[in-house]
Amino acid sequence: MQELFEELTDFDNIALHGRYQYEPDTGTVDPYLAAHIGQLGAIEGLIEGGAARSTDDDFWFTDVRPDYSNKKQHMLFEELYSFLLDMRIKKMITGTHREQLREGRRLLEEMLEEVNEAKPAYLLSQAWTKFVEANQEKWVKGKREEDAQKVLSDWNGDFKWMMLRLGDIPVEEVTSKMVKGMLGFYESRPDTRFTCEKAGSAYKRIPIEDVYTLIVNGDIPEEHEIGGNTLMRFHKAIKDFFEWLVDEDEDAGIATNPAIGFSFKFKESDTRTKFSNEEVRQFEAFALAQKEPWKKWVILLAIYTGARLGDIKKIMSHDAKAELLEDSSVKYYRIKHGKTKAAIRNIPIHKKLLDYGLLNALEKPMLTSHVSNYFPRWRESLGIPDSDINDYNRTFHSFRHSFKSQAATTIKDSRIEDALMGHESSGSAGDKVYLTYNISVLKEAIDKVHYD
């Protein structure tokens, strides 16, 4: 504060500029004076905005900078900066400043007293250290060493995820809106049991900071995302942390828990896996035996397009977002809408679907019933378990996993596979790319997919 006062009350550089032209009505304003006026307007805007305070060193006129880590000092710095800047402007225009200078010295003395009395910010990292020290004995009591280490690892993992999203900010600054936003962001966290195709390694072996970057860049495939139960467990850990701060940690200085008091819809936990080739063949035979056409074609399209149920329904109902087209004698569906840019794609009609008579069957729109209600009955009638040995669910979406698995085996080129699946490919620098292939190339590739 003292250094700021001395720098902005050094008027020698003002004297060097001599007389300052200031006729705003005609647009005649000295550039040096205009810069001061613009800076004053900017700092007053920050002060008025309250929370949106500048942490950019290039923002300030002065060599002195505020202490960005101390919110109280930062606010006082800006207040004094604004007052002294206004004084300099008046000095340039009127040539007088003595009365304001006396006021400035008084303001400085008050601020220095306030800074000396102010407690330093209590950061999330400091609060977490106390939280763990106070609770870890209870967490691991009666557990084997291996299990105890996993419990502590899970807690520390939750804290790392929170820190990556919120930053090491003062506890008192965390709001319910911030926690809710964090939950929404982490819906795209990957299940660590999956392998990251981009990195060529299991997610659990990738540094958490790098996984965070994958989430930010939208590089986590939908089928790799954690289920609702995992996200609810993370939310509970954060709730317990802040609840302890409210009840037990006086240094936190918070009266309410920011991790509660808002609504958030957790998605159903649905960690899905593929069907075996034998199981797919069972479904195929089952479909061909159906008397109700929609049951037959919803399954066959799932098997031989790898499309999501939503896209299959569009195809069957002649939705404008899934148009039947032809190019170079190749019939294909143009999916015109999706969650990502890559989901907008062309799906050539597999030769098996043509052989089964798809085009004739879908000459007119065909509406599907509640597939999600029917599917478990179909699976049970075939004696196919609802989960695999790892407790991964078998749902209608598992056809998509099966198609992807076979495509990876038969097509060999992952970029063509991604184009068919509606996934984003990666360039040499790791950037997302959206490749467009000739329809004949895609037709040749999709016809290679089989379940023999």
TrEMBL record:
Name of this protein: Tyr recombinase domain-containing protein
SUPFAM superfamilies in alphabetical order: DNA breaking-rejoining enzymes
One Gene Ontology term from the biological process aspect of the record: DNA recombination
Highest taxon listed in the record's lineage: Bacteria
Entry keyword set: DNA integration, DNA recombination, DNA-binding
Family: Belongs to the 'phage' integrase family.
Residue span, Tyr recombinase domain: 270-447
Example of a GO MF term: DNA binding
